[in-house]
Amino acid sequence: MTPLLIEALRTPAALAAFTPAQCDLVLRQAERAQLLPSLHARARDAGVLERLPAPARRQLEWARQQGERHLQAVRWEVRQIRMAMAGLGVPLILLKGGAYAMAGLAAAEGRIFSDIDILVPRAALADVESALMLHGWAGVGHDDYDQHYYRRWMHELPPMRHVWRETVIDVHHAILPSTAAAHPDAMLLRAAAEPLPGYPASGSLPAVYTLGPVDMILHSATHLLYESEFDHGLRNLVDIDRLLHEFSPLPGFWVRLTDRAAALQLQRPLFYALRHAARLLHTPVPAALLQGNDVARPGPVVLALMDALLDRALLPEHDSCDGPLSKLARQMLYLRGNWLRMPPWLLARHLFHKALLTPLQAARTRDV
Amino acid sequence: MLTVAQLPAGQLAARLAGAGLTLQTGAFVTRLQSTIPSVVRGVALMYADYPLGPDDGYADFHLRMVRPLNWRRWLRPQVQLLADGLAPFKPLPLAQAYPMFEWGLNWCISSRAHSYLMLHAAVVEKHGRAAILPAPPGSGKSTLCAALVHHGWRLLSDELTMVRLEDGLIAPMPRPISLKNGSIELMRAALPTALFSPPVHDTNKGTVAHLRAPADSIVRLDEAARPAWIVFPRYEAGAAVELQPVAKARAHLRTAENAFNYSVLAARGFDAMAALIEQSDCYDFRYSSLADGIATFERLAAPP
Amino acid sequence: MAISWRLCPGQQLRRRQWDGECVLYNDLSGDTHLIGADALELLLALHAGPADTDNLGRHLRSAGMAADDAEVATMLEDLERLALVEAVC
Which of A19, A24, A27, A31 to mutate to test the interface with B (most CBs of B within 10 A)? Predict the structure, then answer.
């Protein structure tokens, strides 16, 4: 049975016919999936807000206010980051939610997120980190192992939190770690970055950019399939759906998407992302891309397994949607994400350390 | 509309144990589920006069009080609050289950209801005009509020002042008044016929008990009130009673500091606060006895 | 050489005044500030259009607010830190 939230995302107009009990459930599913402000935007765009029962409409209003405030906070945060990077000669390339928000994309509507993600050249990492620290950001409580792990293997610095704004910034130099099987070239991504209108370089302030449309979609697909947290899986899929709706009308879009996926070695994650956006959210995707070529499409056994996992993991993490295998599916995808990001020997050491060594270290410091 | 007290015998416990009891709590519908005996008793006693919510399956807030399944279950039993299945707080000792419901519901409302400017303040009404008492710790506002609502003032809320964004009126949210430590005995002595929940000890606020909201305040929970005064109370043993006007710009900022969602509401929050300040006389109020408090508010409310 | 100043784009100077004190909403940061009459006068002058430090100083003095150029410069720097005004290159 399709969860009500999925029905509402596919066809927002259907909300007009929901009973009070159905409204109650869809709002709770949306809240859990962090899609409540999004649901407001979709209901508004479909012209059905006025037809909802007043209490349900009121809850969506509450969520809309949060989304609006969040956007203001993002703009302010980007301003602060830009000022911190003044004089470095490094452009400020925004990724993910920060990019959608600043570019005013449909994907940004009602999307609340906790971190700002930026992309800088690897060579500039040390300078950027110092500049951020000078302006009040500090590494978040990680032990020495985490710090070492991040800097050596990961495609990003450990997250940095601002000391009094308490906002978090993730500084990436690539979109996948060097240990991953795929190697999307960050230089290609940076070269295709598009300037954000209204934010040219000014004095010592860097210009602000977002990734090109096709790269944004590929990054979102990569994030969905490689990163660990499937509690935001549906929201991530909704991003992809919204981005596709926004950019697919551009001439030659689908060809550019597939060509670029090949150039960045991201054909497999794109295949899964398109497949599940089409399956779950009914995003219009051309049949040829759903079919995929030999590189993109996995073998039938792997495909069946991934379908089973993703079908479950992408549903809202709510009692009304979870089946007996949902938790297991999310765990397996977490392991797979880790597996894909690093080779087996490193994975074992990482998980072993995380599971056993870190608590021992913590105990040691407590005794002192 | 049926009230909780009008439910047939056994129905209250059955609903709480099953699909949930829906309550009309001010402008919101709350669904509560629990099999914990102190919660069932607390609700039966404190919410007797409350209308049940509509039977259509919709609720604004979904709370469940459970006993977490962990090793402590027998040694030191605990209670967990679940807001639609998620636990926003760490478990507390089981004895604190009923207060935890009250705190939990306050938390649910104050973190979500952004069509109101929500203040951490008590609010009472007389002759159609409302007095707001913002509440930093040590102000004694709950005790003062409890006294006022038994001396001619209607209880709108003891914790959450709900200012409607669309018209600036205060929406009632009458709920049991929470009292701490010495003020419990004080109010018991002052109000021999009022109903109190059993005191709960060793909470992080000390000993806590709840005083049932006057029946009149629940009957009139649909009657919004126009704000007229903002009074910052400060209890100081032995001090002479003093009511000092506060400059409005300062009152704006001080009240904003006592708001839950002033920042979330952004420009609308600013406008709502400014409108509230505009129509209110703002005071600092120092007092050392409830009699002083009652008398001062009586003078404030006297028709001009 | 006097620096030229303007209101930060997006600032609408949403404000209320009571008895000579002013609360101001900062559209960019979301903060609310308590500002004095002289700072408000500076902001209102810039609301009309960009101006340099000297002109702003003269404007304040003609409005009856005593302020030497150093004070005006300090005030503008404070307002710049709050993202209410910015220097124009």
Answer: A24
